[in-house]
């Protein structure tokens, strides 16, 4: 069975305020067995606490986030400038996967730019493979956009055959592709999965008044409400069919399930993670 963990982007504020190890202890107490580190500095203090989490709490550091190149949006280490440190951190923590969370915006703008970026990923993936580490690419809905009839996701796979995938099933669903189809097509290269739910909100009462007014400006406001009434949800509190999807993900080769909720809408992230864990336990995970 895949190891169940947390995408630590959700608790980056808690790590900043409380320190890494106390947060790891809380996650362990909730019943999670692994973490994926993202948007948290891999400085010596945090890395030492992660190592302590491995040795004292039995946590698995399943994946570390990296950028392909250092840039204004990179919040952690980059493969072009920090390669040796990344490898050293992985060996220190027993981590076999590093992941790129998103391609640069400019790489999404054209087929040529996307292919060039993917080729650079392939070069770094081969370097990492020589160190016993696999490079993963994490999708968003934009990765289902097409250039000349080819999805960006498929383009990356074609150009960067050494790169495996972290499949975010929420973004697959939001991109208009059935998650089961994605898992089937990428069976064998889906190494980690982001488990996040997709909630659709009822329209607020004021929407009725807006559409009834006949005013074009009110209609435009109504359409904004109508088109933006989706949320990231605690696992089990949305519309994703997890009893069907999680076994399918394991059949596709997933080794880790990382719970992630990009926005908690004012709730304490630990409460959200508790709710998600309780639901997953209720379906056998």
TrEMBL record:
Keyword Isomerase: yes
InterPro entries listed in its UniProt record: IolE/XylAMocC-like (IPR050312), Xyl_isomerase-like_sf (IPR036237), Xyl_isomerase-like_TIM-brl (IPR013022)
Name of this chain's protein: Sugar phosphate isomerase/epimerase
Keywords: Isomerase
Keyword Isomerase assigned: yes
All residue ranges annotated as the Xylose isomerase-like TIM barrel domain in the record: 24-282
GO molecular function, one term: isomerase activity
Annotated Pfam families: AP_endonuc_2
Domain of life where this protein originates: Bacteria
């Amino acid at each position: 069975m895949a190891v169940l963990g947390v995408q630590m982007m959700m608790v980056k504020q808690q790590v900043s305020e409380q320190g890494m190890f106390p947060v790891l202890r809380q996650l362990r107490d909730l019943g999670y067995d692994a973490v994926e580190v993202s948007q948290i500095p891999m400085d010596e203090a945090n890395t030492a606490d992660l190592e302590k989490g491995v040795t004292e709490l039995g946590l698995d550091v399943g994946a570390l986030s990296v950028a392909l190149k250092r840039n204004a949006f990179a919040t952690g280490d980059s493969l072009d400038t920090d390669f040796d440190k990344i490898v050293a951190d992985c060996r220190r923590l027993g981590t076999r996967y590093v992941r790129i969370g998103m391609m640069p915006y400019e790489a999404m703008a054209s087929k040529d730019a996307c292919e060039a970026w993917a080729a650079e990923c392939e070069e770094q993936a081969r370097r990492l493979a020589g160190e016993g580490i696999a490079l993963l690419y994490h999708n968003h809905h934009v990765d289902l956009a097409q250039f000349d009839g080819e999805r960006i996701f498929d383009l990356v796979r074609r150009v960067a055959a050494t790169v495996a995938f972290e499949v975010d099933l929420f973004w697959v669903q939001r991109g208009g592709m059935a998650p089961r189809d994605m898992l089937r097509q990428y069976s064998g290269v889906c190494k980690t999965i982001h488990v996040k739910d997709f909630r659709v909100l009822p329209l607020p009462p004021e929407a009725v008044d807006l559409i009834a007014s006949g005013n074009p400006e009110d209609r435009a406001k109504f359409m904004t409400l109508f088109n933006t009434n989706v949320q990231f949800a605690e696992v089990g509190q949305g519309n994703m069919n997890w009893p069907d999807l999680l076994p399918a993900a394991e059949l596709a080769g997933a080794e880790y399930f990382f719970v992630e909720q990009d926005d908690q809408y004012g709730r304490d992230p630990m409460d959200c993670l508790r709710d998600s864990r309780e639901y997953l336990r209720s379906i056998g995970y």
